[in-house]
Amino acid sequence: MELGQKPMRSKENALIILASTPNYREAAKQLNIAVPTIYSWLRDPEFASKVEETRNEIVSDAIAKMKGYAVKAVETLANLMDDESAHVRRAASNDILNHVGRFMELKEFEQRLINLERQSTRTK
Fold first, then answer.
1. CA 12, 16, 22, 28: dihedral to nearest 10 degrees?
2. What does the DSSP 8-state code read for residue 22?
3. Which residues contact 74 (CB under 8 A, 6 or more apart)?
4. Of 93, 68, 61, residue with least CA distance to 80
5. Is residue 47 pLDDT above 80, yes or no?
6. Are 24 and 35 in contact (CB under 8 A)?
7. Burial of 31 from C-beta contacts in 10 A (0-12 / 13-18 / 19+)
8. Does 1 score more than 90 pLDDT?
9. Alpha helix locations (H) across 11-44?
10. ∠ CA 29-32-34, rounded to 5°
11. What is the C-alpha to C-alpha distance for residues 81 and 92, in angstroms, rounded to an integer?
12. Is the separation of the CB atoms in 7 and 1 below 8 Å?
């Protein structure tokens, strides 16, 4: 810890850092506390739940931002299909087909899961 810098010992102030850093060692460094302190805090089920909730909010925000760029990404790929380079057109076409294929697989998986859940609730 640098001279004059106080450790951030408040669990509430640490939520964002704990939820957004790749590991607890990095979080402890940013918070100027020892890693065992973090583990001590996480033994509190309410605090651990808040960390997980904050982490989920961060991920949800990132996904929402990505969704905002999805249309632009598709337009970019579509525009690349008219590029002069056959290599670029082929790559863009493959990207679009791969993404559509994955989307269709996920939709099929989702429908199968819904059907299984319906069957499960009927047999109970």
1. -40
2. S
3. 96
4. 93
5. yes
6. yes
7. buried
8. no
9. 11-20, 24-31, 35-42
10. 80
11. 6
12. yes
* Contacting residues for 88 by C-beta, under 8 A, at least 6 apart: 80
In the structure, what pLDDT confidence band is assigned to residue 9 with cuts at 50, 70 and 90? low
Q: What angle (nearest 5°) sits at the alpha carbon of residue 25, between those of residues 36 and 57?
A: 100
pTM for this structure? 0.59
User: For the residues 34-49, what does the mean pLDDT come to?
Assistant: 95
pLDDT digits (tens, 9 = 90+) for 49-85: 999 999 999 999 999 999 999 999 999 999 999 999 9
Amino acid symbol at 81: M
Does residue 13 contact residue 51 with C-beta atoms inside 8 Å? no
Given a contact cutoff of 8 angstroms between Cβ atoms, the answer to whether 37 and 27 are in contact is no
- Look at residue 2 in the predicted model and tell me its pLDDT: 46
Is 2 exposed, middle or buried (CB count within 10 Å of its CB: 0-12, 13-18, 19+)? exposed
pLDDT tens digits for range 76-122: 999 999 999 999 999 999 999 999 999 999 999 999 999 999 998 88
Domain ranges of the chain: 1-68, 81-124
